[in-house]
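# nightly structure sweep
# worker-07 picked up a monomer target from the shared queue
# config: single-sequence mode, recycle default, output format = structure tokens
# input follows
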Amino acid sequence: MFDDLEFPVIVAPMAGGPTTPQLVGAVTDAGGFGFLAAGYLSAETLDARIAHTADLTGGRFGVNLFVPGGRSVADLAAHRERLLAEAVRYGVELGEPVWDDDEYPAKLDLVVRHRVPLVSFTFGAPTSAEVQRIHEAGGKVAVTVTNPEEADLAAARGADALVVQGFEAGGHRGLFTDDPGNPAGGEEYGLLALLRLLGARTSLPLVAAGGLVNGADIAAVLAAGASAAQLGTAFLLATEAGTGDTQRRALAEAGRATAFTRAFSGRPARGMVNRVLSDLSAAAPAAYPQLHHLSKPVRAAAGKAGDPEAMSLWAGQTYPLASDGSAASIMARLRAEAKSAAERLDRLR
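# output follows
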């Protein structure tokens, strides 16, 4: 599936703004592949972005969909009260903590109608019938997994590839089920360990994701059995990325640790530590997407004010090593670093 890539690098689907058609197009032009992020977009907006991305890539791209979960019955009152102080600070009203399915059925219809060549899923596995629809439209299916059990289910549903997400990854963990009693939502597997575990139980192509920002990282995961490497944080500072100015500054300063939090969205996600992450994470309920909608006005107001302390600053553990510049220049750097790493492996011969 990924054998025809000139350079086995995939730009990750980063919902909320960072992944743009221009970024996917630039990475494709440089020999890689890219996923368009459908999360949080309306179906109408996604329709236009798919058409734009297809024009920029000659149709060689993927789309990532969020699989809707069940409606949480967690009590949001205490978290809402704590978040209210942040809303007052920025002079905005809190959002309504509603549950929705992210227009999943309509978005699934779109990827089938557009005959998107590769559709990936996060937060769960599509049904076997949904996989069949994509296959009948000529597409392939990839599923993000964080543990062996999820990998087994995805394979049983007919997935063509697995995106193997280690705990080092920035943004939301792709967990199928979020355990409220675990701050990380479930067991934390490092990327290399998970690659080896899954490689021993499936012949499906594995795409490695989590903390990869250097060409040596790419060489390492390929040596560990991956067919390609998926990078997100490495492209957050790219010229073509839609990353906001406030987050760009925080990334460039590289002075913050990262940690998991549910405070912004109700699902475990890794981001740079700031005031809201520090103060509101401990008691944040497992209630996605209700908390995402509740905190959205605060996050937007903080970003507009240039204040990183109330934003969801999603980033992988190795974000201080990410570089700025065009996507083409980042790809060129990654190639050179990967080649150098491969040459160092000659000592094993």
